[in-house]
């Protein structure tokens, strides 16, 4: 007999526990929505040895520490954090629930039937929500070994890590247009750049080949035979199959991204050709009440940008869901707002908010 999942309902469910998901969940919770964060663990941010480019966060902080602190903050404010994997999702058949929430244009609550709720199926629990925020990111395509250690000589984000390699010997690994241009961009930081094709035919264009031939970039075609690391685990050099040993402080692998867009596609969200989810300026997808933020969407893959996108989605959801001010058309139907109707925040979140008051 198949065991049925238990079901739990929230105003908002955020899928993904990286910076974008944490930020969206934080804003949704603090703006008065019962919110769940579902995190399967891992992800790009969790692998960061040091956090870069985040004002107020020192570089002694690892990605895992940043994410752990974020979850603690969420739980303190009343967000429910689950360690789970969402395997599928669906939208219920349109129901007849009439919305009394704020309209999407800010003019007042919608009077038409609200969109049906979304069910997200976890391992043992089904999560039901009015709004869903997808922050499932992407997975970097890794080249075949032998490789330096991730974060100790093998890196994926130029804008995060180029600063680490100023005036140091650097490699860029790959055969694509992106690999060629990242190699050229690295000349802004160091004069010693090699482009490693690893015995694979390049796919860049003739124009890109002309660009490369007119910049001081050495293209190394031999395959890597072995990796030499220092006592601290950092890369020191690579040995190639022709016996050549080349010293590097670090470098970048440019093999593309595998976007974790399965849930978005299952809900019917429109996708770009590269697999990213199409969103508006607030993170709203083509499907009503479904948002996408962070690395799952087009743009720069940066922690501060992800944090901002999560915040923007949380504010947009609050704008759509807030009870007050009550629209004049609903005042005629429901009457004026009375003292017992406010504040418009669930009791459990109200209690948490009072606990957080710092001016007593």
Automatic annotation (TrEMBL):
One Pfam family cited in the UniProt record for this chain: Pyr_redox_2
Tree of life domain: Archaea
Sequence ranges of Basic and acidic residues compositional bias: 90-100
Domain FAD/NAD(P)-binding: 10-310
Keywords from the named record: Flavoprotein, Oxidoreductase
Keyword Cell membrane: no
Annotated region (Disordered), positions in chain: 90-118
Annotated InterPro entries: FAD/NAD-bd_sf, FAD/NAD-binding_dom, Ferredoxin-NADP_redctase_2
Any one GO molecular function term: oxidoreductase activity
SUPFAM superfamilies, per the entry: FAD/NAD(P)-binding domain (SSF51905)
Identification of the protein by name: FAD-dependent pyridine nucleotide-disulfide oxidoreductase
Annotated source species: Natrialba chahannaoensis JCM 10990
